[in-house]
């Protein structure tokens, strides 16, 4: 009865938390200041031409390394419950290793954490959002299994310094981007296009690294600080185009995109999704390999990884529909490593668009994904770690308000009708930032940043005012006074 009353009024449960996110390389700038080492993104943008849409880079970005007080101020203005930001590994450990720790960097993030806490904003820290120290890349990066140890020692430095104040940790952001965009497609740093083995070696190593950090926390810090730790997985919802023909293909697609990074952690049995394991073995043997290109887990490794998520962190942006490829069609990129699937992923007809076709807007996919994940992995807690609208520079971003509202409605709906346990929502992004290969062309910020002004002023968009009202009332029924004259459609 209680739940019914709460949801009927479009209220969120009282303990539901709202946040906004950013990542180090996308906002900090100061790429070579105060002892910071070079990261793979520094190297990528400085040495390649024709890969970043506007030939820009993150050398200065939103200058948050210097303007972080401004970031804390706007987070406070929004009344955020938490701010999700990432720490630059290369800033803390310029060569990637623990023998060389940069004290200026340690102090920098410590100051940010303290300032957030002073404003009553919980710091949610991502340990790795794609900016690997180049020295580690020179040693093979995420394809070298030793990275699990390197990552563990980085994690230890972070825990030692910040675990007293940081209670929510995300080890790794979007492993699929690290492995499949970084090593398979090769469009993201380090820009390696090796479609057979590298993405799958990376897949296993990323999970081992995550699990090492998780186990370290449990062993040494959990009793004392009682924090929670997980990763942030990019989830793509996939519809079958034609029923019942494409149902199985849609499941396989989701196992490939979502399951390869979730099943080892959240399933009862651990390890790879069985369907993927089977397909990868068959492809590999047919290709003349003597074993699967997907590296196996030992039983011990399976158990080591299984259960290493205190909640499921998910980044949801978009949805596709899947169908078999027709004669002469080349399967979508994510299946390049296993072309035999011969599947195509198309944008569904009910999608709408901001400034990015790739991130076509399909709010229902968030609800469908949450429901699917609960059915697949059981009654676990979900934290939406990213969800954001690619827009333009305009300040009157009614479309972004609509986006936030529609996605939050989906969240409320699955909480209400299917009892899915969602503990919080993170809007991507707090402010406009360097959007990787998109450069500065599309904007996600609740706050606009003027990248032509050396002072990089932050200015609230209408969506910032709307989001602050949602947070303030803990509800989608925001009051008229709060939103003033923001026109919000039903
Ligand atoms: C998020 O990834 C990231 O976590 C965040 O850092 C980023 O700012 C945000 O997206 C918005 O872009 O250009 O065809 O190669 C979401 C998943 C995967 C979506 C890579 C964009 C690039 C497609 N992203 N993808 S393409």
Automatic annotation (TrEMBL):
One of its GO terms (biological process) is carbohydrate metabolic process. The keyword Glycoprotein applies. One of its GO terms (molecular function) is beta-glucosidase activity. Keywords: Glycoprotein, Glycosidase, Hydrolase, Membrane, Signal, Transmembrane, Transmembrane helix. Gene3D superfamilies: Glycosidases. InterPro entries: GH, GH_1_N_CS, Glyco_hydro_1. It comes from the Eukaryota. The keyword Transcription regulation does not apply. Belongs to the glycosyl hydrolase 1 family. Homodimer. This is Myrosinase 1-like.
């Amino acid at each position: 009865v209680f739940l019914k009353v709460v949801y009927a009024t479009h209220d969120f449960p009282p303990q539901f938390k709202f946040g906004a996110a950013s990542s180090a390389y996308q906002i900090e700038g100061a790429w070579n200041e105060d002892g910071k080492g070079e990261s793979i993104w520094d190297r990528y943008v400085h040495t390649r031409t024709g890969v970043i849409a506007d030939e820009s880079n993150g050398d200065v970005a939103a200058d948050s390394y210097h303007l972080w007080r401004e970031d804390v101020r706007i987070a406070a203005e929004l009344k955020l419950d938490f701010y999700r930001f990432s720490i630059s590994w290369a800033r803390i450990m310029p060569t990637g290793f623990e023998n060389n720790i940069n004290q200026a960097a340690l102090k920098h993030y410590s100051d940010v954490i303290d300032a957030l806490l002073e404003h009553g904003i919980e710091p949610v820290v991502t340990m790795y959002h794609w900016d690997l120290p180049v020295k580690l890349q020179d040693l093979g990066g995420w394809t070298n299994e030793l990275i699990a140890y390197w990552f563990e020692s980085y994690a230890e430095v972070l825990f030692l310094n910040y675990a007293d104040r940081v209670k929510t940790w995300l080890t790794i952001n979007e492993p699929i981007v690290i492995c499949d965009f970084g090593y398979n497609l090769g469009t993201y740093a380090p820009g390696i296009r090796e479609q057979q083995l590298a993405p799958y070696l990376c897949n296993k190593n990323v999970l081992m690294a995550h699990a090492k950090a998780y186990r370290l926390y449990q062993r040494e810090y959990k009793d004392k600080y009682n924090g929670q730790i997980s990763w942030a997985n990019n989830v793509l919802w996939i519809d079958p185009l034609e029923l019942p023909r494409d149902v199985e293909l849609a499941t396989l697609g989701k196992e490939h995109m979502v399951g390869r990074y979730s099943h080892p952690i959240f399933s009862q049995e651990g390890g790879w999704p069985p369907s993927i394991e089977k397909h990868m073995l068959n492809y590999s043997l047919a290709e003349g390999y003597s074993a699967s290109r997907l590296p196996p887990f030992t039983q011990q490794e399976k158990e080591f990884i299984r259960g290493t998520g205190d909640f499921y962190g998910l980044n949801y942006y978009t949805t596709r529909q899947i169908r078999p490829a027709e004669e002469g069609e080349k399967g979508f990129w994510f299946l390049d490593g296993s072309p035999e699937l011969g599947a195509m992923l198309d944008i569904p007809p009910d999608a709408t668009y901001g400034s990015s076709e790739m991130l076509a807007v399909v709010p229902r996919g968030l609800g469908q994904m949450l429901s699917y994940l609960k059915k697949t992995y059981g009654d676990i807690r979900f934290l939406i770690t990213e969800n954001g609208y690619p827009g333009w520079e305009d300040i009157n971003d009614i479309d972004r308000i609509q986006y936030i509202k529609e996605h939050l409605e989906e969240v409320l709906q699955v909480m209400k009708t299917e009892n899915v346990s969602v503990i919080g929502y993170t809007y991507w992004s707090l402010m406009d930032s360097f959007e990787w290969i998109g450069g500065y062309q599309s904007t996600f910020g609740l706050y606009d940043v003027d990248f032509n002004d050396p002072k990089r002023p932050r200015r609230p968009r209408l969506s910032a005012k709307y989001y602050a009202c949602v947070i303030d009332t803990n509800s989608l029924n925001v009051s008229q006074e709060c939103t003033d004259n923001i026109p919000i459609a039903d």
